Amino acid sequence: MSDSHYALTDQQIQLFIQRGFLTIQADADPGLHGEIHDQLEHVYANEGNIGNNILPRIPRIQEVFDDPAVRAALTGLLGPDYIMNPHRHGHLNPPGSKGQTWHKDCYVYDHNLRHPRFQWILAFYYPQDTDADMGPSALVPGHQNFKTISAVDPDHTTESVLPLLGIAGTVTLLNFDAWHRATANVSNKNRYMLKFQFARMSQPRAPLWQHGSATWVPSEPDSVPGLSRDVWHWLRGGMSTPVNNGKVNEADLLADDECLRLNTAYDLAAHEGTESLLVEAMRRETREAIEDTTAKTADNAHGTNPTAGAAARALSSMGSRAVPMLAESLHDDLWWIRAMSADILARIGPSAAMVEEQLVHALADDHWWVRRNALEALRSLGPVKESSIHPITNALHDSDYRVRRNAALALCHLGEAGESAVAALLEVLEDENRYNRFYAALALRRIGTPKATNALMDSLFTARWCPLTSADSRY
After folding, report:
1. pLDDT tens sequence across 65-105
2. Are strands 21-25 and 170-175 parallel, antiparallel or unpaired?
3. Is the pTM of this model over 0.85?
4. CA–CA separation, 197 vs 108, rounded Å?
5. Distance from C-alpha of 359 to C-alpha of 379, rounded to nearest angstrom
6. What CATH number matches the domain at 3-199, 2.60.120.620, 2.40.50.100, 3.30.70.20, 3.40.50.300?
7. Roughly what angle, to the nearest 10 degrees, separates helices 368-380 and 386-394?
8. Residues linked to residue 198 through DSSP beta bridges, in sequence order
9. Burial class of 475 by CB neighbour count within 10 A (0 to 12, 13 to 18, 19+)
């Protein structure tokens, strides 16, 4: 059966945008999930949690994510060239566990800003039937775009919550910013959930699902309709269709209620001539939130992934209209405003191509977060000018690992034009950061010249993993 048979529908895409999750059943070999479960039991009993090596240790897990239904869903949400990130984690929730508090995951020690135009997705896979007693994962549907919820203590949370139940082979795809937690396991069985991460590598160009209508027609109430509509049109590869809802109270940009702030910002973005108002609001909210950049809170547990402000998020929906003023903000006296401006340009994507030179100039900024975000923005523009390749390659030698990582990601889009970066990428294959090594390998693979491919293969043969080798069988 062809992959097109499994493609998502408009309704599924729109529900994912609203609710922040989608459940897929991996239609694989019926014995696959039982085999994976049995191997997990053995590995955890004899080797413990082996972290990122869970996939090479149990290679058949890959069959779950190669399943045509899972692959079609990931393609519809993340594009045709999405990647599986190198970070993955096996969650064992044993009998008697008390569960977790509500939280959002970090972006694997990188400093992405949380934004509705999602670039990453979480995949939760159950290798065994999972009912409510077994301590399933749970989420707060529809709140992925909010910095806070009523309470992170589940005993005091007032929002509706949803336990993620399912038979063996259930894969739940979550917006990376979804509020979620493990619940208490009151059964006598181990509950395993394998968490994998997938990321978009290119900006949306066209719908990659069974697309019938460009109209945003949500099938349930939506607390942030302007935001959701923008994500829908962005995923379709087009601009948001402005919906003028009449006069907007600008003072509500300062409201305590986050939902009101977001609706006000997106309503203003739908009006002509509001660019300067929203850019100034972005500067104000960014200055006021600078203390939150590394604050360890429930939505920013590692102090690495703050949530962009309401005006900052809405500015991305304005496309090229907002670009000239954002380019000016790249020179602001405050580094956090410069970093936020670069992030918004990254979310705008190809429509911001006119500021490529300014973004290249920002690679020399004195703050690593500005340099990091400038590289992310350059990656989102599409193919860059030949003159930009050298400064991007130089960023592979940056003193900050996050800058080096995003330089490697930016080079992934160059194809054979990135040949000149091969030597520098080989150095990153020995980077102190394990994830940077992966992204350097990915860049070499995508450059694809004989020189890049041979260098990559030499490195991979040296690092080859044997899934049969364990404490019980060393040789």
Report:
1. 999 999 999 999 999 999 999 999 999 999 999 999 999 99
2. antiparallel
3. yes
4. 10
5. 11
6. 2.60.120.620
7. 140
8. 84, 121
9. exposed
